[in-house]
Amino acid sequence: MRATVMYSAGDVRVENVPDPKIQNPTDAVVRVAASCICGSDLWPYAQMPATPTGRRMGHEFLGVVEDVGSEVSGLDRGDLVVAPFVWADNTCDFCREGLHTSCRHGGQWGLDGVDGGQGEAVRVPQAEGTLVKLPVGADSALLPSLLTLSDVYCTGHHGVVTSRVGPGKSVTVIGDGAVGLCAVLAAQRLGAEQTILMGRHKDRTDLGREFGATDVVSERGEEGIERVRELTGGDGTHAVVEAVGAEQSMHTALGIVRDGGAISRLGVPQYTAVPLGMDTIMKNVTVTGGAAPARAYIEELLPDVLEGKVEPGRVFNRTVGFDAVPEGYRAMADREALKVLIQP
Amino acid sequence: MRATVMYSAGDVRVENVPDPKIQNPTDAVVRVAASCICGSDLWPYAQMPATPTGRRMGHEFLGVVEDVGSEVSGLDRGDLVVAPFVWADNTCDFCREGLHTSCRHGGQWGLDGVDGGQGEAVRVPQAEGTLVKLPVGADSALLPSLLTLSDVYCTGHHGVVTSRVGPGKSVTVIGDGAVGLCAVLAAQRLGAEQTILMGRHKDRTDLGREFGATDVVSERGEEGIERVRELTGGDGTHAVVEAVGAEQSMHTALGIVRDGGAISRLGVPQYTAVPLGMDTIMKNVTVTGGAAPARAYIEELLPDVLEGKVEPGRVFNRTVGFDAVPEGYRAMADREALKVLIQP
Question: Is A303 on the interface with B (CB under 8 A)?
Answer without folding.
Answer: no
